[in-house]
Specification:
The protein is α/β, with parallel strands linked by helices and about 160 residues long. It contains 6 helices and 4 strands. It has a single domain, classed as PAC-like subunit (Rossmann fold, 3-Layer(aba) Sandwich), CATH 3.40.50. Helix 1 links the parallel strand 2 and strand 3.
């Protein structure tokens, strides 16, 4: 049977797409998160299947770790290859595996270019991303008066790109 478990997920946070994807770790043994140099979570609230599984592993004494990628809230309606790549790379590093990420890297580059093009076409969006970069922390929820408009603009642009 299994000796330990590694789970992965993503959450919508107040982070910019232009910075490295923040990865947060949650483990049955909190010392493991520190040992791996991951950010810790202070989230308390509703959970999904990953949280339920982590608690089940804790109850039976099986070591388990979940990795969470913070994704920009203004890109929430789209799959995020940059977050996927960050999770795969962290998981491969933790497990000591070599993983061919060439195709995912290409998709990530194309995705980033499309989002950057949308950002360049909207001064408000560019200013908002700059504020997020300055804040630099993955936070839950949205702030700012124009965020709904910015979300709509970026979603419209990405829909048009196919």
């Amino acid at each position: 049977g299994a000796e330990d478990a590694l789970l992965m997920g993503a959450f919508i946070g107040q982070v910019a797409h232009t910075v490295p994807v923040p990865i947060i770790g949650v483990a049955t043994d909190p010392a493991e998160v520190q040992r791996l140099g991951l950010m810790t979570s202070r989230y308390e609230g509703p959970t999904g299947i990953v949280g339920v599984m982590l608690e089940a592993f804790r109850e039976v004494g099986m070591p388990a770790l979940s990795l969470w990628a913070a994704t920009p809230h203004y890109l929430a309606a789209n799959p995020n290859p940059k977050a996927m790549l960050a999770l795969v790379e962290h998981a491969a590093s933790i497990l000591g595996l070599g993983v061919d990420t060439g195709e995912l890297r290409q998709v990530t580059t194309e995705f980033s270019q499309r989002v950057d093009e949308a950002m360049e076409s909207s001064g408000d969006f560019a200013e908002y991303v700059e504020r997020l970069e300055e804040e630099g922390q993955p936070a839950m929820g949205m702030r700012g008066g124009n965020s709904d408009q910015l979300v709509s603009e970026i979603e419209d642009f990405l829909r048009e790109q196919g």
